[in-house]
Amino acid sequence: MQLNPIGVIHSPYQERGQAPRQGRLSENEITLEIYPPFAAAFKDIERCSHLIVLYWGDRANREILQLRTPFSEVPVGVFSSRSPNRPNPIAFCVADLIRREGDRLIVRGVDALDGSPLLDIKSYAPALDSIPEATTGHIPGSLEGISKGKQTHV
Q1: For the chain, which domains are there?
Q2: What pLDDT is stored for residue 154 in this prediction?
């Protein structure tokens, strides 16, 4: 398997402790720079209000399999968490599309560190991507509960 970045993310977050717990908790504008071979993929992107941004957590710890979340002292597996530390650190954010500037998209709601490889962008479709009755296990159902605490690995 081979992943080829389609671009790079420019953000104010230089180190892991600077990024918000989740992208939706930040008001910062982030730049998604798309490499020239993928420029044609921008067609009609301005029609989207929100985007799914997939990127590679290149500074994540890929050996951590369990951790304590900010919401519990009981360790959970990374597959039942939103930790950036995981065997394949594919990160996912739903971003507000603010504007397009040539080969760059200015978005809000991304927690990526500066220089993170951008893997893909997809349009967010509320009818398909939102499941109001979904359960979250140990993760609070509101943004207020998510903004507090720190994750620690086991």
Answers
A1: 7-60+87-126 (2.40.30.70)
A2: 41
